[in-house]
Amino acid sequence: MTPAQHPALAARLEAAGLFEADWYRRTYPDVDESELSPLEHFLNFGLSEGRAPGPRFSPADYLAANPDVAEAGGNALVHYLTWGQQEGRALARPDAWPEGPLPEGVPAWVTQGAPARPATGRLRVLYVLSVQSGGTPQTNQDLMQALEGEAECLVLRCSGRDLVLYFFHAGIYVPVARQRLAVPITARLHTSVEYDQIVAGWLQEYAVTLVHIRHLVWQGLGVISAAKQLGLPVVCSFHDYYSICPSLKLLDENLRFCAGRCTRSRGECQPELWPAEQFAALKHDEVYAWQQRFAGALALCDAYVTTTAAARDLILSIFPALDNGRFAVIPHGRDFTEIARLAVEPEAGVPLRVLVPGHIAVAKGAGVLQQLAGMAELSHVEWHVLGSVDGGLEGDWPASVVFHGTYRREAFHSHVAEIRPHLGAVLSLWPETWCHTLTELWAAGLPVLGFDIGAVGERLAATGAGWRVSPFTAEAVAEALDVATQPGEWQRAAECVTQWQRQGQVSCSQMAERYLEVYRQACPDMLPVLRRPVA
Length: 535
Prior knowledge:
Elements: H1 7-16, H2 21-27, H3 38-46, H4 59-65, H5 67-72, H6 76-87, H7 108-112, E1 123-129, H8 135-147, E2 151-158, E3 162-169, E4 172-180, H9 193-205, E5 210-213, H10 222-229, E6 234-237, H11 282-298, E7 303-306, H12 309-318, E8 327-329, E9 352-357, H13 366-373, E10 381-386, E11 401-403, H14 412-419, E12 423-426, H15 436-443, E13 448-451, H16 454-463, E14 466-469, H17 474-484, H18 489-504, H19 508-522
Parallel strand pairs: 1-2, 1-5, 5-6, 6-7, 7-8, 9-10, 9-12, 10-11, 12-13, 13-14
Antiparallel strand pairs: 2-3, 3-4
Helix pairs in contact: 8-19, 9-10, 13-17
């Protein structure tokens, strides 16, 4: 079949800009073994085999986003070109990064498939990520948007088997390359020679000038050595404790904080982002080999970043070799369209409304919340959960717990205004490295009650904008609530929240300037052209 023999499909492909001959040939090497052109090969074989025509369309992602098409058993690309495009069908799941429409101002090399070096005075940064939702990718997007004009931003995502390279611009992740590993990366080794070769090739082909590790789950640890072998500086950020233990939050099987050193109990800790069967015995055993592998890989980096002094101290307690004088503490920036004072002052005889935002899981204090809701002495308290509940926890809850469902980031204030809470609560049992929900609560004007651990405890201590609770029990929370509602105490905390709103909130541009300073130190050869502050 030639384009002339199938003119309608070929025309639609060309109009949609979805077929890229060079990409198709690189992605599917068997194309060169045939006597067909890449387009002819795709029309004759690739289409029916479910191959992607180019980096901007993944049949698997389209079917996942449109289960009715998958159930009908139709060809993903044919459906999209015939009906889906006109219907405005999604190319990927809602929680995936937006890959279209193609934004204005995209460099010509992105669409033409002929990478050029970045313009003089600009970095081309490769951000290494895997998950597409949550605080880490959202903060990274905030950073990339703040750096536009200063840096060209690429994003490397890996699912363990599928690698995708994106160019980020104006909120859109434009795919520029895809590759599937013959053998997926596994947790135990966390390496792949094939992965290293692909990444090294992309680093060279796309003229990357700096690599910034945001998260290494499902990625190969060799991304760091691949960059260093090419003479590229590498910056590594820590947003949780994955490098210390795949349990991620450093909580043992009894939800006790271990600080990266196994507690004495003989139960087993569970990896959070890998199947448990990939580890024979994590606690008191494979965790030590895990830490050794990460220590060797991380030691190659030029600079390190985390968000609080408490998180940096914890990481350095396990990896002391990273204390090279270039371990920066940079708070997460946020730009709010409004800073509000939505907290309602408690009144005698009126139910106390406590807002608990975010994803409520066991490590986020779901068990503590259940105990609090069942305490007779707190029958006057309403617990308003704004967010999702972990699987297995959706059962019967006392009537004092009100679930409002998930929320969009930009709609948080409107939900708070409807609930009219008196204060907020963060019940995390693990030492979060930042806690975005704490920032959102303060931006809405709510004083916050939180356990005295990690970033939550550190930030509450620094601002006075709430109450630190210890030990991490429902009884201690009940006592803190009694203090918080005493005359004058709520007003004191509310005034501290107002002070934070005036002077404590870090903007995205301020965060970006701090990161640029780290990049400057890691790229001394570019110092003369990286002195311009972010607008």
